Amino acid sequence: MAQSMTGFSQMESLTEEARIVWRLRSVNHRYLDLSLRLPERAGALEIPIRKRLQACFSRGRMECALSVEQDGAATAGLALDEALFEAVVDLESQARAKLHGEACRDSLSMDRLLTWPGMVRDSSGDRRDALWQDKGFVDAVMTALDRAMEEMSASRGREGSALVQVMHGLMDELQTSSDALRGLLPTIHEELEARLRQRVQELTELAPEASRLSQELAFYLNRMDLSE
Question: Which residues, given as ranges, of the chain have pLDDT below 50?
């Protein structure tokens, strides 16, 4: 089946952890030119993804985009660095003990503790890292890619079939025009020969040798032949 280089596919897969969406778009190109857009943490998959695409396609400029959306409730959240918190509080207690009950400044406020450098961190980053280290999730991503490639192949096949139909129609029209022109060739040759003979007579008063004139006429008619 004829394959076009133009096609599009979108494949979505839902797992317990996230929503996986692959979008593949292809346009004409002499060779296979891949452009991948992957999540930052999916960099390790770039080579395996390229190999799969290269095994399936040989031509076309192809854009492949992967998006992964984790559940907001599962990914959003702040985590307290408990070890650092305890260390800061303990350090404050030690400092107060060295004053032996003497008047000192106010104790650290909760606001000051929570804004201490490194005290609070975004825990969603850890969850995203763990997600891409999960073999089951990575397998789901690659399976979704396989399905997207299958749909892309089908899309390019449909486009190729449509192009074949268009080309067949154009070839039929060309054949009809060629047949009609072929039937007119004898008349065209006669008219061309008559014009050339008249032109020769206008240019010279001497009667050219018949064989030489016939040779020259054959030469010019051959150059003006439309049958090819």
Answer: 73-75
Convert the pLDDT of each residue in 38-52 to its tens digit: 988 888 899 999 999
pTM of the model: 0.57
Beta strands in 47-180 (DSSP E): 60-70, 78-80, 120-122
Dihedral (CA of 13, 17, 18, 24) sign? negative
Length of the chain: 228
What's the pLDDT at 73?
A: 45
**Nearest CA-CA partner of 21 in 29, 10, 31, 33:** 10
Give the dihedral of Cα atoms 45, 147, 58, 43; nearest 10 deg: -10
Residue range 63-84, pLDDT digits in tens: 999 999 876 544 456 677 778 8
Q: Is the dihedral of CA 186, 190, 191, 192 positive or negative?
A: positive
CB–CB of 63/25 below 8 Å? Answer: yes
* Integer Cα distance of 223 and 192 in angstroms: 11
Task: Tell me the two tokens of residue 94.
Answer: 């030690």
The β-bridge relationship of strands 120-122 and 78-80 is: antiparallel
Return d(Cα 10, Cα 148) in angstroms, integer. Answer: 6
Q: How far apart are the C-alpha atoms of 141 and 66, rounded to whole Å?
A: 9
How many other C-beta atoms are found inside a 10 Å radius of the C-beta of residue 22?
A: 23
Q: Name the token pair of 79.
A: 């985590």
